[in-house]
User: Fold this.
Amino acid sequence: MNKHARPKSVFEPNAAIEHVQGPASARVTLVEYGDFQCPSCAQAHTAMKIMLAHFGPQLRFVYRHYPQRQAHPDAELAAEAAEAAAAQGQFWPYYDLLFEHQQHLKEKHLLEYARRLDLDMARYQNEMNDHVYLQRVQEHMQSGQQLGLRATPAFYVNGLLTDVSFGLQHLHEAIDKAL
Assistant:
């Protein structure tokens, strides 16, 4: 490695292995650490759709898994299932289904969502049975733990933590300010 190369920031997404919407040329990169079973994350999911439409190509959105296993026992398996869907090019539609049906994240439901998206079911079931994507989910969690995260959703606007505990309007304002 070039000793003068700038170290890659934890906030610079790797589109090859991460879930990114929006162009690399966007002026603002928004990273969310989320949990598919978290009610606040479901609210954020709805708000993100609005913000992505509002800010358009000025915003790049990155989603990372941060399942809160103690509070949300189905969240980690849902994250694994989202990764299995991603391996078949269906992360974002599966992500939407998980948040739209947040009260139904048991294994049988995850299987039904995979069927709805017409995934290769033999592949999906084999990968889920073997927990092929558990390490990737845990790597996302470790990066969040290194940042000191305690709750979800956690948002970083161009690398700066944005407090949304008093509402997602703060996130919109932080993006506006960064632009």
